[in-house]
Amino acid sequence: MVVAELRADLPPDALSIAFIVDQRHLGDRALSEAWAALGVAGCRVEVVVPDDGDRLFPMPREAPLWDAVVTRGRALAGFGLLAAAAARGIRPVNSPASIDLVRNKIAMHARLMDHGIPLPRTWFAAHPRAFERLSPKHFPLVVKPVDGDGARGIALLTGPTDVELLPRSRGRKQLYLAQELLQTDGWDLKLYGIGSRIWAVRKPSPVDLCRPGPARVRKVEGATVVALDSELIDIGLTCGRACGLELWGVDVARTARGPVVIEVNDFPTYSAVPGAGAAIARHAMALADMHRTARAAGSDRIHLFARASA
Q: Which CATH number fits domain 2-94+276-292: 3.40.50.920, 3.30.1360.70, 3.40.640.10, 3.40.50.720?
């Protein structure tokens, strides 16, 4: 695990915000902008890069001196550090429970359904052969692992017999999610949320589903911010609130029947969103400051009660 403190010339009472970030995300524009904005605002920023290899992580005897903690990535050690910090009373910007919810696509789908979000027809199974039992009228289907990361493991089934084309999990049990293929114009619509703000970004889809079997994933460019209407704002905010997230993204398909939500993710890329890093910094500072104030108020109440009882 690598820990870097971006500024050391700060007073002891400066707000301290930690970022637990996978190595692959260290160059993300939104993160770099957030760190810079926090430094300018006089905050102490620590960047923690977890190592998911053979490193031994001792359980902390004391809580880190952080007011808030943000996580970006999928490293299990990083998630463990976040959960430990939250359990010791540090304010997670996205809570472990919320992250767990959106990474379990079955639980996420059920939560969104309960809030009236438009969703594709969806099935799940412990073995891909179960999808052979579906009526041919339900195909084509997009299949992916329930705990998928990005486009990993996505495949197209045009009929029941295409199940044979699905890649099998190696050495571990797996759950598979199957969703009806939604016809779009080949572009993805992303809704990005920070606190109470929503942006919409249109970009070419990186997933090529032109033939049955595993999808081809390609690098794409050309993301642009597009105008929001009231329906998209409502969908974006409802998804974030339903899942308990402060930083989130929503994948939306524009269809003939209107926008349909494919999934929700914690801490997305914020591609093309102007000032995303500064907005993340402001929101993290507000949460950290409120949490510090609430903890101080709680401590004061305890001391008053102790003196009154003496």
A: 3.40.50.920
